[in-house]
Fold this protein.
Amino acid sequence: MRELARLKLDQDLVDTARTAAAKIVSDLKQHIDAHTTVSVERSALRLLGVDGVNRDGIPLPNVLVEQIQRRGKLGLGAAYWLGNAILASNLPVQPLAEAAGQGRLDITGLADQGEARVQKLVEELAVKALGEIASRRQERELLLRQLGEGPQPYLYVIVATGNIYEDVIQARAAVTQGADIIAVIRSTGQSLLDYVPYGPTTEGFGGTFATQENFRIMRQALDEAGSNAGRYIRLTNYCSGLCMPEIAVMGALERLDMMLNDSMYGIIFRDINMQRTFVDQYFSRLINAYAGIIINTGEDNYLTTADAVEEAHAVLASQFINEQFAFLSGMQPDQVGLGHAFEINPELEDGFLLELAQAQLVRQIFPGSPVKYMPPTKFMTGNIFRGQVQDALFNAASILTGQSIHLLGMLTEGIHTPLVMDRALSIENARYVFRTMRHLGEEISFRPGGRIETRAGQVLARAVTLLEEIAAAGLMQAIGRGVFAGIARTPSGGKGLDGVIAKEPGYYNPFPARMLAGRGSYGRG
Amino acid sequence: MGEVDLSQVRPYGDSLDDGLVQLSFTLPVPFGGKAKEAARQLSLGMGLLEPNVVHAADLGEGFSFFVVYARTPCSVDFDTLKADRAAETVMGKTEIELHYLAKFRRKPVILGACIGTDAHTVGIDAIMNMKGYNGHKGLEAYHGLAAVNLGAQVSSEEVVVRARELNADAILVSQVVTQKNIHLANLTRLAELLEAENMREKTVLVVGGPRISHRLAKELGYDAGFGPGTYAEDVATFVVQELERRNFIQWGEEKWKQ
């Protein structure tokens, strides 16, 4: 393929930005290394084979971790206590978890089996779990080779009926219409649950609960639809909120392909405690990295509250930070789908030029990233006819600048969750624009020193200034001052701080070292 | 064009009283000639005249999509109906500040929140936040008004607690997610709580959202409702007029603290 048109950017500024972002992230590594969370520990238990719910419907990973936490012993790691209990009780993992779930057994109250024996046993279970995830990854690679995939930008649509079986029908129709990626929107409010619901679900608000069974149902449906359509269909869900790492485990085991997974989104938009989130996001990304999952970051959200022209540099700064957090967890550049959005007020003269500047800037600065481009939402009115035009312009900006993951705009955005025909009209719109403009980006160039190039340079320069300020202050303090989306959060505020635990000497979790082993590091810190 | 008869107004396409309407819908039937005929007959069943199925498409999975033009025999009596809106005429920000806020002896306190599990702040932010939306400043920018935005996913209980703490004179809640009518349950709950706490009388209670109408809001026991296309001044106009009408000054600054 020929090169797309390029902007002339100051490479020194790009390097400075990356160095500052790497410093911001490495300053937090100490906090991350020194702490664990209830959700990280539940994830370790899930990986080691704990599943299911007790009589009251409480997930067994929660029951066990609460039991250990009540005894004040979580600082040693749930994996240690599970291993010790298996050896002491002579029970396999699941019956043991069930016994604890019925209150018949206290997993911290059994005879000490010795660290060496415990670790030997847990390492075996860990190897088995990682082997399972690796085979899901190989399955994906095989299917991609066999079936192939649609061309980029991938057409990404959402389903959000609240009922997983209805979602399947809508998703299959979307695949017939041409979709490459299906995202199942979560029920509103799930991000604030400190447990993962269990089993298939048919009731949700604004979306469908993320459960492992729902993942399995949709995965199977998309494999069938993809096989009929002759291309691999990617499945996306939300690895965010208080159960970030647990959802990563579920996604890794059920071969999800993408996860919404931002290092700061929960802090800013869901008021989840930042000490909690920074630890959770690290472990969740280790899992996503290992599972070959592409993450989608959430910078588009900044622009739903802040102005897209004024705050463009904050989006870019956050992308640099998200990139470094991802590298810290062993992610490869092609797994880091950095997010941005087409959210400039349509009333602004030359607004489209500014959109092009931003899209091209992001594309060029993160050449290895499967950049995720989000459609207009903030300025979508009930005027569906104008909405279709806004979406067409968004589609044009995407194909011109070579975006990778293209979330389709809906003409009914802001009215209701997508109806079956909204999705069809949207896919038709995007396919038309992509087809008719397929190689336009290779035929044009940006005027040196022109409006678009100048704007991109300004945004980059302001991002560098912001990143250097954040690096000097520290990320937690900077968020406390409201640098992103104009929303301020404090290190001790928000939900979930009581689930952050200091690791004690002897803390044991077999997964991080194994997940990071043999992975190249792209970080600069 | 001839004289419009306001007692019998019909849709206008390109000539008076042609009654032209456009509609689109999906039927869960396989695409084909039979599906098109189904769309035509469904339109007739709606009472429409001369339905013309101008577009039909296969959506896959046994779904077919249609665009239909038709004429409606219905008309509406424009003379006697009343608008479903909170305030007859909307004032601008400066007018509200000069004619109302500057004359009040104390700053009215207005509280904003997305209640229930609703995490969509775009609506409440557009009305409350300093910057506003589309060039229309938000309530935080109004002189003489104390606007507090509690943000997303606030429980009805918390709204009541904060309203008490802050001596709120008006509460503005937003509901964007309306699937399975969750918004109706949330809104009813808040109104009932305020009622139970004896706070309803001294609170102007307002709701906004894409599926909210003034009529619906009144049915739910709210003072006003605002739908799509609402700006801060629409809400502010209603709130200041309602506060004045209810002589909120006599509520006192410490109205809940007795």
In short: Chain A touches chain B at residues 162, 169, 172-173, 175-177, 187-189, 191-192, 203-206, 269-271, 304-305, 307, 345, 347, 377-379, 381-382, 414-417, 419-421, 424 (CB under 8 Å). Residues 37-126 of chain A form one domain. DSSP finds 20 helices and eleven strands in chain A. The mean pLDDT of chain A is 95.
